[in-house]
Amino acid sequence: MTALVIDDSRLARAELRHLLQAFVDVEVVGEARHADEARTQIQALQPDVLFLDIHMPGQSGFELLASLEAAPHVIFTTAYDEYALRAFEANALDYLVKPVMEARLATALEKARARLVAPAAPTAPEPAVLPLTAQDQVFVKDGERCWFVRLADVKLFEINGSYTQIYFENHRPLIPRTLQHLETRLDPKVFFRANRQQIINLKWVESIEPWFSNTLKIKLREGPEVEVSRKQSVQFRELLSL
């Protein structure tokens, strides 16, 4: 089993390498300090498993995974325990909280071995998941506060650190979802990906004006202004033109 260790801390990488020496079937083929370095290493080394930190300079571990067309198996290694649910939603094999204990590491590696040697069983195609309509209501929880929100009332979804912030009424809760995930669930006739950071509700557009380099700037009713990327500006014009 080949492994790539991704962590911005040199001491954390060295400690994990030391722990992995106890497992003779594991070969650490490389290290990376941040997402850009990791992408290069993943492409060049094609490791079986990533030992991946979450908080790193530049992009987080979740953002790195979202940027990959195909990712190796992932074992998260982090000093924070609050991202465990999101990690397993990203199909992680395991979630190890630093300092990593050898017994927990052994359990995680067992999961990796089982996944790597298991034959690919034929599976029936999953039924297509229909997009949520603007009239659908969704449950939103942020800390101790909860809402049942009609999607038509949501003006904007915006990346905020490792979370996505939802704009509705005067509320701005955070949810542990990526924009990529939300795009698969939202009706593309209503919700538009304006740029890498934001999805807007077209029903809340108040005004549109030309912006720099043939891009657009959109003002949302009772909401912020959103700059549309050059690529998405082209798509926006095509989408809404006769």
What would a concise description of this structure say?
Helices cover 29% and strands 31% of the residues. It has 242 residues and is an alpha/beta fold.
Question: How would you characterize this protein structure?
Answer:
Residues 140-242 form the HTH LytTR-type domain. Keywords: Phosphoprotein. The modification 4-aspartylphosphate is found at residue 53. Residues 2-113 form the Response regulatory domain. This is Two component transcriptional regulator, LytTR family. By secondary structure, the protein is α/β, with parallel strands linked by helices. It has two domains: 2-117, Rossmann fold; 137-240, OB fold (Dihydrolipoamide Acetyltransferase, E2P), CATH 2.40.50.1020. It is 29% helix and 31% strand. The chain has helices spanning 10-20, 35-45, 61-67, 84-89, 102-117, 179-185, 230-240, and strands spanning 2-6, 27-32, 49-52, 73-78, 94-97, 137-142, 145-150, 154-160, 163-168, 174-175, 191-193, 198-201, 205-210, 216-220, 225-228. The strands form four sheets. A five-stranded parallel beta sheet has the order 2-1-3-4-5, sandwiched between helices. A five-stranded antiparallel beta sheet has the order 10-9-8-12-11, with no helix packed on it. A three-stranded antiparallel beta sheet has the order 13-14-15. Strand 11 and strand 12 form a beta hairpin. The termini are far apart.
